[in-house]
Task: structure prediction
Amino acid sequence: MGLTIAYIIIAVYSTALILIFFYSLSQLNLLINYLGQKRQNEEAPKYNLLDPKEIPYVTIQLPIYNEEYVMERLLENISKIEYPKSKLEIQVLDDSTDESVFDTAKHIEALKKTGLDIQHIRRENRQGFKAGALKEGLEIAKGEFVAIFDADFLPESDWLKKTVPYFKDEEIGVVQTRWGHINRDYSTLTRIQAFALDAHFTLEQVGRNSKGHFINFNGTAGIWRKECILDAGNWEGDTLTEDLDLSYRAQLKNWKFKYLEDVETPAELPVVISAARSQQFRWNKGGAENFRKTVWSVITAKNIPFRTKFHGVMHLLNSSMFLCVFIVALLSIPMLYIKNTYGHLGWIFEVTSFFIVSTIILFICYWFTYKSIQGSSFDNFVDYIKLFFTFFSVALGFSLHNSIAVLEGHMGKRSEFVRTPKFNINSLTDSWKGNKYLAKKLSPNMVIEFALMVYFLFGMYSAVPLNDYGLFPFHLMLFLGFGFVFFKSLTSKA
Result:
């Protein structure tokens, strides 16, 4: 390896490490915000829902697409929402293309007979995907406020009573609640997804919202002021995360978002890795698309302070961290050999301490989010350590898949909105096998993921002849992570 190539590898590697370090610092700042935030929910002006004159009209939108396994559960759950029937309508925005349409229609007709104002809204095409369905439903929505639930969400019956009152403050455009997980303990895959989502819904959402920084409506389990949607330019389907897109456009127009950590809305996590893959791809590509679409508006906005801009940029770069991590992983083995070939470059390798510090920061941040939900006992801390490193390894294993999504997003490559298959998994005894919505083809990335598993096995072996074990734990986690993703993808077939 020539010295010039070595310098190029070092430069790229160091840049990726420094970006990861800045991201971890932003997470640390959010942790400080999270720990220091004072609960102001009780002090906020609220509608008195005991006074009929103060009860606003609400529309509940249920955007669905081929949801045979969860439709009955969804409709039964939503029909139990406690709110005056004269002030509530439900729109089932059904873009389905299979026979589930007929069963859905029967359930809706049965619910209509109970006096519920529920409409089955069908479109001739899926133009704009979920954003298009929401936009079309909004045109005829009677509600001043619009609650949105994906098909796998199960809000408590008093959900509207806990969220609607905060709109008494006319500057609030969105109230978002925290996601819960009905099948958290189903498998290793569901546990690590819950772990990552809990960090977002505690540390990030509270940390940003408590200081007035931009947060995002999470696509579901939240409620919008209709006027806010229209003022921000309405739903647009030009990114795969229409929720993040509209959130930023609304906040750039000075609308405030209210995040309620104490209101949990349970939902089902993907239990098969192919479903998790499609969800991860959409979220990460959509994040990169929104960075491309929105970052300049954030940077140049005159109505928001520097700190909010910084956190906004880091938020929009969230998914791009996977690309940085993948670059660091891929170049770590060449770096190992550079270190042992060019002795005079040894000082440069102190930059690797950035990754160790970043990992420690994330370890501390995620502990606070974990204990806020699971508790802070010694046993919980031991479980947390195991779960953190399992999560870390599997996140590394997803880094190729998610990096491809991020690159496509930054390059502007368009792709179809692929809805995550739902399973109706409520307990450990429920099975996902036979689900007709699962991807039948294996991901072509699997071949590369297997090659990367072997590559990092070589990285572990390299530590022996070089007598340099500094990167051995990192390569072990990469080996286990890519191995997990590869073998789960190979075996988790319906």
The chain has a mean pLDDT of 91.
